[in-house]
Amino acid sequence: MILMLSCLFWACKSNPSPGTETPTASDGQAHEHEATLTLNNGQKWEADAATSENVVAMRTIVQNFSVEPHTSLADYQILDGDLQKGLDKMIQECKMQGPDHDALHLWLEPLLKNVSELKKADGTASAEKIFHAIEERLDLYTQYFE
């Protein structure tokens, strides 16, 4: 699964799409360049129904988790498993192509990283911080996709 995701993201990164920006260093020094998610000429990108439904499902998981305080790292590990299943399902069901798909990957890659970090969290404080980053990333979806 990891190899498949790596290949998928490598292929997407090798073809920049319109509507994404690559920041440049203002001081002229070489820096690592990372594409930034932007709107599609002021409009939201179009996502397929399966992707949007899976994002809603993951947002529900996060909202349900945030209802109660969690003091156990095991709680966050269960959340991680639930989110990973949601991500796997979203990736399997996604039929998007072209610039909209490329924009989706710019939104998705940080989320994948956050979920991976949650799995490796070594304490509830770090897990909670990662959880909030996941929550914020999921909330960004509706700002960039319809």
- Give the helix proportion (percent range): 55-70%
Shape: elongated
Report the radius of gyration as a whole number of Å: 16 Å
Task: Describe the main β-sheet briefly.
Answer: none
Number of alpha- plus pi-helical segments: 5
Considering the chains and any ligands shown, give keywords for the structure.
5 helices, 64% helix, disordered N terminus, 146 residues, mainly alpha, single chain
Structure overview:
This protein is an all-alpha fold. The protein has a domain at 47-146. Helices cover 64% and strands 0% of the residues. The longest helix is centred in the C-terminal third of the chain and has 23 residues, at 98-120. The two termini are 28 Å apart.
Summarize the structure.
With 146 residues, this protein is mainly α.
